[in-house]
Design brief:
Blueprint lengths: L1 E11 L3 H13 L4 E4 L52 H16 L5 E4 L2 E5 L2 E4 L5 E12 L22 E3 L13 E5 L3 H12 L7 E4 L4 E5 L11 H17 L3 H11 L3 E2 L8 E7 L1 H7 L4 E3 L4 E4 L3 E4 L2 E4 L4 E5 L14 E2 L2 E3 L8 H14 L3 H7 L11 H16 L3 H9 L14 H31 L1
Parallel strand pairs: 1-2, 1-6, 2-3, 6-19, 7-17, 8-9, 8-17, 9-13, 10-12
Antiparallel strand pairs: 4-5, 5-6, 10-11, 14-15, 15-16, 18-19
Helix pairs in contact: 1-2, 1-7, 4-5, 9-11
Length: 466
């Protein structure tokens, strides 16, 4: 027997982007919502993430608009000392559970179905009881799973592993009770960085750690993503001008990255590296100094297979003894998928509007859905920006960010929403109070963004044809 229910929106998923979307929709409309999710509690990939993971951006800019995450405090100890707190996986999961139980459900406008599989066409079933449901959707289905995050615990290694060889996801590290002779971390993204830092924080000597780094990454200095008042307006202005000068003066793509590195806009782990990856991971200078203690860094490409005696990679092989634990950190957390329009008849497909800011993007999409009547206008305000993977994608990242500012500049409604959104990264210098000074400042800023984008387009074109 199938139970039939009605709602304005059917939201597939209850992860971070789904929660941000629904929160804004509830605040800015009278809509009713059905949320269907396969996990036992809200939070999506956070519910299966490794326990020592923390946000890479301040808690103050994560979660949902209506409820702060964390205590708005500055860390005083550890590798994040001096910066806004970074919520742990447990804190994030607890936060989303509170949002659901203290905000969404008491509203009377949200029906939440955990442990459920969506079967398509408005149908889903509960995986515990098997009970079936069909939703009559008055407005739209909202697919929050298209760009779903994949963490290592969700899948086995993507390379063959010989019998008896110990390969585990990073989740398994806190369960270790007997030490291994050597720890081999495979992957140099955010997860690989976290695994290396966690092992070193537990007292592991750097010489017992091997880091398989298929591609060296460009990283973002966490000091540059701190909100005001921790960052002063003059610091933000100085950094913007330094980035602008780097872009406008660059003679080529390699020259651009050298200049960005010198200006502190991008960091690399080891000074002699020539990074080719970019995934928006942030580090503090203290974390960078700790990572640089690792000397056994293997730069031979991706792992092809692990045998009883060696790790075979694209560019060669390295020996490994029987007393090694391999930590697989290679899951593609944020895939680079084909772009589809966010707003279509009867469907919203959540994707990133602002690169590396999925929850902000989801909240913005919900605001645009509630405030604007026409899908053409909505899609124009919310163009998709694909997740970055390579160093060249940094150019697309910068182009997209600049284009957003230019596109949104003339929309008073959107400007008001951006200025009041908790999830809007508060990393731009305050505008002058005097109307004339404010207008002049805005014109100058927009002119510089236009100049930057013109030069970035030239550099990108020269790279693609060369």
């Amino acid at each position: 027997m199938t139970t039939r229910i009605e709602a304005d929106y059917l939201v597939i998923g209850a992860g971070a982007t789904a929660m941000a979307f629904v929160d804004t929709l509830l605040s800015e409309s009278d809509a009713t919502v059905v949320m269907v999710d396969r996990y036992h509690q809200p939070g999506g990939h956070w519910t299966v993430a490794y326990p020592y993971v923390r946000l890479h951006q301040p808690s103050a800019m994560y979660g949902v608009n209506s409820r702060p995450l964390g205590d708005d405090t500055i860390d005083r100890t550890g590798l994040n000392a001096g910066f806004y707190e970074l919520a742990s996986a447990a804190e994030v999961c607890s936060y989303y559970d509170q949002v659901m139980r203290q905000t969404f459900l008491p509203s009377g406008r949200v029906s939440y179905f955990p442990m459920a599989e969506y079967d398509g066409a408005g149908r889903f079933h509960l995986t515990t009881s098997g009970d079936a449901y069909e939703v009559t959707v008055r407005r739209r289905v909202v697919d929050t799973t298209y760009q779903g995050v994949t963490v290592p615990a969700m899948r086995p290694p993507e390379f063959p592993v010989a019998a008896g060889v110990q390969v585990v996801p990073p989740n398994a590290l806190p369960a270790i009770r007997d030490p291994y002779e050597r720890y081999v971390v495979v992957g140099a993204g955010k997860t690989g960085i976290d695994a290396c830092l966690w092992l070193l924080e537990q007292g592991l000597a750097p010489e017992r750690l091997t880091w398989i780094m298929p591609r060296a990454p460009w990283l973002i200095d966490r000091v540059t993503v701190q909100p005001i008042p921790l960052r002063r307006a003059e610091d933000i202005g100085r950094d913007f001008l330094a980035k602008h000068e780097a872009v406008m003066s660059a003679a080529s793509l390699p020259d651009l990255f050298d200049r960005l590195n010198a200006a502190g806009a991008l960091l690399k782990i080891f000074p002699d590296d020539r990074p080719t990856a970019f995934r928006c991971a942030t580090v503090s200078q203290a974390e960078l100094e700790r990572l640089r203690r690792i000397e056994d860094v293997v730069r031979l490409g991706r792992v092809k297979r692990i045998t009883e005696t060696e790790i075979e990679l694209d560019g060669g092989a390295v020996p490994v003894g029987p007393g090694a634990l391999h930590v697989d950190c290679t899951a593609d957390a944020a895939k680079q998928l084909p772009v589809v329009p966010i707003f279509q008849d009867g469907l919203i497909t959540l994707q990133s509007v602002r690169v590396c800011q999925p929850v902000f993007s989801a909240a913005l999409i919900a605001h645009v859905e509630a405030a604007y009547p026409d899908d053409t206008v909505k899609n124009d305000l919310c163009p998709v920006t694909p997740n970055p993977r390579t160093d060249v994608d940094w150019l697309r990242f910068a182009l997209s960010a600049n284009a957003e500012a230019l596109r949104w500049a003339g929309d008073d409604d959107l400007d008001t929403w951006l200025r009041t959104s908790r999830l809007q990264p508060n990393i731009a210098p305050p505008m002058p109070e005097d109307p004339a000074e404010r207008a002049a400042f805005a014109r100058q800023s927009l002119t510089m963004l236009q100049e930057q984008n013109a030069r970035l387009e030239q550099l990108l074109h020269a790279h693609e044809v060369g």
